[in-house]
């Protein structure tokens, strides 16, 4: 259930990346990131958002194929981990993550609250990675036992 819930969340968010409002919503996060801000020098705000949307949709699809292709799903889990490590880095690089009226960090602004939930999604991504690895190991062991 966690795998498919994760895929739904990532895929759904990925679809919205093609909408201009979502491209504009992520712009301050990406622009302030030393890891990703340079991408706006290469791509427009909308193009980058659309590329990210494709990556997120592909990640979601890769996650759900685990019963048939656990190795492929392992790649989906790795991509999900990369996505959530990236978004969690925005907690450090984005101005205004701490709520100024409450004294700043650790009191989170709406942006900070939006980002912090990705800790749970990162944890689920790690679990799906371990699950895919176990399926690969189990498949290899059962194949070897048959020979």
From TrEMBL:
Pfam families for the chain:
DUF417 (PF04224)
Q: Does the keyword Ubl conjugation apply?
A: no
Q: Which terms under GO biological process does the entry name?
A: response to hypochlorite
Task: Report which superkingdom the organism of origin falls in.
Answer: Bacteria
- Gene Ontology, cellular component aspect: plasma membrane
Q: What is the name of this protein?
A: Inner membrane protein ykgB
Which UniProt keyword terms apply here?
A: Membrane, Transmembrane, Transmembrane helix
Q: Which residues cross the membrane?
A: 7-26, 38-65, 72-92, 112-130
- Recorded source organism is Mycobacteroides abscessus MAB_091912_2446
């Amino acid at each position: 259930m966690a795998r498919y819930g994760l895929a739904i969340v990532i895929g759904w968010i990925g679809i919205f990346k093609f909408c201009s409002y979502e491209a504009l919503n992520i712009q301050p996060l990406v622009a302030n990131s030393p890891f990703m801000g340079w991408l706006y020098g290469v791509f427009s705000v909308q193009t980058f958002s659309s590329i990210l949307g494709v990556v997120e949709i592909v990640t979601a699809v890769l996650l759900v194929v685990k019963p048939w292709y656990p190795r492929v799903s392992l790649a989906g889990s790795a991509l999900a981990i990369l996505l959530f490590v990236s978004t969690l880095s925005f907690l450090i690089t984005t101005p205004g993550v701490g709520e100024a009226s409450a004294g700043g960090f650790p009191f989170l602004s709406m942006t900070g609250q939006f980002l912090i939930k990705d800790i749970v999604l990162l944890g689920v991504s790690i679990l799906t990675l371990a699950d895919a690895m176990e399926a690969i190991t189990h498949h290899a062991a059962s194949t070897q036992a048959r020979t």
